[in-house]
From TrEMBL:
<feature type="signal peptide">
    <location>
        <begin position="1"/>
        <end position="21"/>
    </location>
</feature>
<keyword id="KW-0732">Signal</keyword>
<dbReference type="InterPro" id="IPR050490">
    <property type="entry name" value="Bact_solute-bd_prot1"/>
</dbReference>
<keyword id="KW-0449">Lipoprotein</keyword>
<dbReference type="InterPro" id="IPR006059">
    <property type="entry name" value="SBP"/>
</dbReference>
<keyword id="KW-1003">Cell membrane</keyword>
<protein>
    <submittedName>
        <fullName>ABC-type glycerol-3-phosphate transport system, substrate-binding protein</fullName>
    </submittedName>
</protein>
<keyword id="KW-0472">Membrane</keyword>
<dbReference type="Pfam" id="PF13416">
    <property type="entry name" value="SBP_bac_8"/>
</dbReference>
<keyword id="KW-0564">Palmitate</keyword>
């Protein structure tokens, strides 16, 4: 956990306290255009559930907030989203929520359905792309603000594919031919770091999106209604078993290998592919800014897989806050300062969800993303994550998958365990 404070510096440019609709009033650079007046100092608490790419963005926000709204103090608590965000939220639900919570789009349904979140003013949601609104809305009202997005699939070493004459696989048979050729030539097919439960859970949902949810978008509801189960669903079992394809064709130390070291092996040519997401780009380019890589969706049983899109940094605010004006100032900075936005996008190596903002970093896989987008072959993983929640369900399933792969339990036991936690698979209402 990391706690940070920005010192209050004096004057600020927020609207008068009676106008709670928001701070607004910034020009394209984010500089406040309203008259200065002395403001009472306010402290906002921020719980930030971070992905590996996000660490450091709080410093960037601090700097702009201190300049533009110096009467506002931000007190940050930064935790790992995969392991710690949900437990922290459960604690704060008992003692009182932070003023601002930063998680993922799927968290909006979890907490918004319990009437814990405030509607995001349209002044700020109007600054993000329409595609970022649907999955953070409940009954037509947006309770989250999506700032950026990740893409997920199979990253591949473009030069290695060209040297070996491999084409991007569309079917599992196509993929197996590449795997076989890799093994014959002494190349590790997949880089992976299965020591991270979140990584197993993430790739399993990737598989499930294309083998399960693209066929039945209501699979999770059917699961809870007793119409589907892990023990009976051939599609879900296929999604689970894809983990075995990776495990049998990756580094022997995968259950002790950290992500950074894994990504380094990929960049250094020790593996041809990695099932991952945009969070790996940051490591790839830090290691070698000239590393050339592409991305394709992991093939499903039908050969019609889609590239996966995931809304990432998502801001939520506490319902019935007595600090709404200050909260709106935070939203104003995050959505209105384009220089800050570009700085964050370049740092995280992620896709923008703000309108008319383009990062400056070079993403070698962008041409592949554009291709799948133009063909309509991109699917939003929020569908699956809303159907089967992460905390208490997907993460627990991932632990069982890891135990199965290591021979600590049978495949059937892993399926039974998933069925046994059916009551934890959805948002409690």
């Amino acid at each position: 956990m990391k706690l940070k404070k920005v010192l209050a510096l004096g004057l600020a440019g927020c609207m008068a306290a009676s106008m709670l609709a928001g701070c607004g009033g910034s020009d394209s650079s984010g500089k406040d255009t309203k008259g200065e007046e002395e403001k009472e100092e306010v402290t906002l608490t921020v719980l930030a559930g971070q992905s590996t790419t996000d660490v450091g963005m709080e410093d960037m926000i601090d700097e702009v907030m201190a300049e533009k709204y110096p009467h506002i103090t931000l007190e940050w608590e930064c935790v790992d989203w995969g392991n710690d965000f949900q437990p922290k939220m459960q604690q704060y639900m008992q003692s009182g929520l932070p003023d601002i919570m930063i998680g993922k789009a799927q968290d909006v349904l979890t907490y918004g359905s319990q009437d814990l979140l405030a509607e995001i003013p349209s002044e700020y949601t109007g600054r993000v792309l329409d595609a970022a609104i649907e999955n953070v809305s409940i009954d037509g009202k947006a309770y989250g603000l999506v700032f950026n997005a990740l893409y997920q699939g199979v990253y591949y070493n473009r030069a290695m594919f060209e040297e070996n004459g491999w084409s991007v696989p569309k079917t599992l048979d196509d993929l197996q031919k590449i795997i076989d050729d890799c093994n014959e030539k002494g190349i590790t097919p997949f880089a992976s770091h299965m020591v991270d439960t979140w990584s197993i859970g993430n790739v399993t949902m990737q598989f499930a999106m294309n083998d399960v949810f693209n066929k039945n978008p209501q699979w999770g509801d059917d699961f809870r209604a007793g119409k589907e189960s892990y023990e009976k669903s051939q599609d879900m079992q296929a999604a689970y078993k894809n983990n075995e394809i990776i495990y049998k064709n990756t580094f022997p130390e995968t259950f002790s290998l950290e992500q950074t070291d894994c990504d380094a092996k990929m960049v250094m040519g020790e593996a041809a592919m990695k099932v991952s997401g945009s969070w790996s780009i940051q490591n790839f380019l830090d290691i070698d800014e000239n590393f050339d890589f592409g991305i394709f969706p992991f093939p499903n049983q039908n050969g019609d897989s889609k590239l996966i899109f995931e809304p990432n940094i998502t801001v939520m605010t506490k319902a019935d806050s007595d600090k709404q004006e200050a909260v709106n100032c935070f939203l104003d900075v995050l959505t209105g300062d384009k220089d800050l936005a570009v700085q964050i996008y370049d740092h995280t190596k992620t896709a923008p969800m703000l309108k008319d903002v383009s990062p400056t970093f070079i993403n070698p896989s962008q041409s592949d993303i554009d291709k799948y987008a133009s063909e309509g072959n991109i699917v939003d993983v929020t569908l699956g994550n809303n159907q089967l929640v992460w905390g208490g369900f997907q993460e627990e399933n991932a632990k069982d998958i890891g135990a199965w792969l290591q021979g600590q339990q049978t495949f059937e036991d892993a399926l039974k365990a998933s069925d046994g936690r059916v009551n934890a698979s959805s948002v409690s209402k």
